[in-house]
Amino acid sequence: MYQKFLDSSFRTKLMLSYFLLSGFIVLILGFVYFETSARNITTNVTDSVTSVLRSNNQLLDNKLTAIQKTVDMIPIDHDLLQTIMNVDTTDSSSLLRADRSITKILYRYFGNMEEVYASQIMTQNYAYGSTDRMYIPVKPFYSSPLATTAVEAEGATQWIPAYSYADTFHQQDLKRGSYEFSSLFAVVKQLHLTALDDAGTFHTLPEGKEKPILILNFRPDLLKGGFEDYAARSGFAHLSYGMIHDKNGMVMSSDRQQQVGEPVADWLKDAITSEQGMKMVNVKGQSILLVYEAMKTTGWVSYIAIPMEDVLGHLSTIRTYTVFFLGFMMLVAVILAYLLSVYISKPITDMKQAMKVMEKGHFDIRIPVRGYDELGDLVIRFNQMNEKIKDLIEENYKSRLRAKESELMALNLQLNPHFLYNTLTTMYWIALEHKQQELGQLIISLAEMLQITTRNKNDTWSLETDLNWLEKYIYIMQNRFEDKFTVEYDIDPILLQVEVPKLFLQPFVENSIIHGFAEMESGGLIRITAWIEKQLVCFKVEDNGLGIQEEHIRRIQAGEIRSTGIKNVDRRVRLLYGMDYGVTLHSPAGKGTFVLIRIGEIHRSNQMTPIQ
Q1: Looking at the structure, do residues 25 and 103 belong to the same domain, yes or no?
Q2: Is the same domain home to 380 and 342?
Q3: Name one GO molecular function term (predicted).
Q4: The domain spanning residue 82 has which CATH number?
Q5: Cβ-based burial of 333 (10 A; exposed 0-12, middle 13-18, buried ≥19)
Q6: What is d(CA 505, CA 485) in angstroms, rounded to the nearest whole number?
Q7: Does 569 share its domain with 530?
Q8: Helix residue spans in 74-169 (DSSP H)
Q9: Which residues contact 573 (CB under 8 A, 6 or more apart)?
């Protein structure tokens, strides 16, 4: 499989790469979108439930706070104090009058409070208050935890969590039937009656007088508040809610009526660890979102529990849409990958076709440039290469023609360097016969220069050979300029066998003679120095001539002056040894010329041309 991929075309590789990359990105985006949707849905549900809990608790807190404030006003009611003080517990008519009076007092305080299911004031002898909704038997009441809690609180208001009417007041017959006050919660308060009359006189219950107990009963439905509405409109089929006394107490209110008055479930105990919060709990293998918050007035805890299956129920639709979206995007990715691969690989395909045409010897083909990116630059260079190949072929053809012509010309003339050397030697002997020794020496120097040059066909020779040739050249130039200058050498002997470019010193010596000493009659000095510096060979040619103008030096170095030997030497050195080497030229006006030549690592020469 991998080999098939390697053997496939560049376009196929490119298309597969784009498809895999875009497919990977699309899958990652789909996964992230799905996870983000789930997280956002959970967050939104949590925020919504928290808002419902907070609003419901705030509403209940306001109601219960108002009830508690009203309850706190009962002990200082003057009419109630007078009624309790004046009642004759042995006279039934007195009890009835007191009952009517207390009923009115209770109605005055709680008659407009729909939350209060029933209100009574209990004594050991009588239960005062309306019995329209429910009746509390005296003796069972005083033997119940409600009375005990009120007495022990000594006048403090106490909230009683859910209790069973039948069990608390020993009404076993009621268990067989169904009635609306079967489960209640209540407020109890022992009344330490104290009041001021209209004259401002302070009154209180006499010592030994029984302190009555106020009891307000509420149905658990009160605690449901807005939970029922939220459950109905939320659409969560398995949402549950309720209120508990505390995490170790009992259920006070619940959407499941059978749980009211029962102990709190273990999973709920473990989950509730603070006054408010949100947790994911596992109940019998089912993940449940639990949000809870405690009321400020009573400390009772409201909660809403929703299975995560319900919370994420809408994700099935999102999942379906996501799958369709991913499929569509993958199709788009395939199309785009194909189009991009065709577009990007087009220059390479064109070059491939062009090469096939070039194989047949047609070099006139040109590939259109579609852009100036890397591939566009490659096409441009391909066209340039093709043009150069064409030019080289034409030039090679012309060179062969010229070579043929030159060969024919040489054959016709029968002229070669050996013929020239023999001719110059003959001229030398003729000069000696005519006693022209100076002329003869010039001729033989020229002949030897020709012999040295033609004998060595390489680009380099030994420094000794180069100096041998240079001395003969200097001899000729000294005779030409009638000893206008002298030459000094300072050459390290160890360098004589070092390989150097052929005739690399001659252009600088010639420059000093022709230009440096142009306006001098005598006294010209050329000093040639060679030394080793850090495994490099350095040469210095300096003179005391007129120097060269800076603009002229710049033009020489830039190659603007054609056929200059100085620039040619610099090019040869750089070609042979690298761009870090070459010629450095300095010529302060009127102070002579200084040339430094640096060549690469030392290479010993096998040539042994002696200096004559």
Answers
A1: no
A2: no
A3: phosphorelay sensor kinase activity
A4: 3.30.450.20
A5: buried
A6: 17
A7: yes
A8: 78-86, 92-110, 138-142, 145-153, 165-168
A9: 501, 504, 581, 582, 583, 597, 598, 599
> Who's near 6: CB < 8 A, 6+ residues apart?
none
Burial annotation 228-252 (CB, 10 A radius, 16+ → b, else e): eebbeebebeebbbbbbbeeebbbb
The string of pLDDT tens digits covering residues 541-581 is 999 988 877 777 777 766 666 546 778 888 888 888 888 88
Quickly list DSSP for 256-267: SGGGTTSBPPHH
Which runs of E-coded beta strand occur in 165-248? 183-190, 194-196, 202-204, 213-218, 240-244
Q: Which residue has better confidence, 310 or 55?
A: 55
pLDDT band at 261 (very low <50, low <70, confident <90, very high): low
Give the position of tokens 């440096």. 516
Q: What is the DSSP letter of 74?
A: G
240 assigned to some structural domain:
no
Helix (H) or strand (E) holding 125: none
364-371 — which CB contacts under 8 Å span 24+ positions? 364/390, 370/346
pTM value is: 0.49
Residue 189 included in any domain: yes
C-alpha pair distances (Å), 143 with each of 146, 171, 194, 319? 8, 13, 26, 62
Distance from C-alpha of 77 to C-alpha of 340, rounded to nearest angstrom: 91
Question: What phi and psi, each to the nearest 5 degrees, are found at residue 531?
Answer: -155, 170
Q: Would you give the DSSP letter of residue 437?
A: H
The reply to whether 120 and 206 lie within a common domain is: yes
Cβ(503)–Cβ(573) below 8 Å:
no
Q: In whole numbers, what is the pLDDT of the chain averaged over residues?
A: 80
Q: Which two tokens stand for residue 480?
A: 């030409």
Same domain, yes or no: 532 and 597: yes
Cβ-contact 2, 280 below 8 angstroms: no
* Six token digits for residue 64: 């219960």
Q: What is the largest CA-CA distance in the chain?
A: 186
Report residue 82: phi and psi, to 5°: -65, -40
Question: Per the domain annotation, does 167 fall within a domain?
Answer: yes
Q: What is the pLDDT of residues 423-468, one digit of tens each?
A: 667 676 776 766 666 676 777 777 777 777 777 777 788 999 999 9
Q: Are residues 594 and 554 in the same domain?
A: yes
Amino acid letter, residue 421: Y
Phi and psi for 305 in degrees, rounded to 5? -120, 130
Nearest to 186 by CA among 243, 118, 131: 118
**Sequence letter at residue 92:** S
Distance CA 407, CA 392 (A): 22
Is residue 328 domain-shared with residue 408, that is, in the same domain?
A: no
Amino acid sitting at position 304: I
**Torsion region of 592: left, alpha or beta (phi above 0 gives left; psi -120 to 50 gives alpha):** left
Please check whether residue 584 lies inside any domain of the structure.
Answer: yes
Give the Å distances, CA to CA, from 403 to 60, 153, 407, 408, 409. Answer: 115, 131, 6, 8, 10
Task: Please give the DSSP secondary-structure letter assigned to residue 544.
Answer: -
pLDDT in tens, 190-242: 999 988 877 778 888 888 888 999 999 988 777 776 676 776 666 676 777 77
**Pair type for strands 524-533 and 485-491:** parallel
Its domain, for residue 326, covers 2-44+320-349
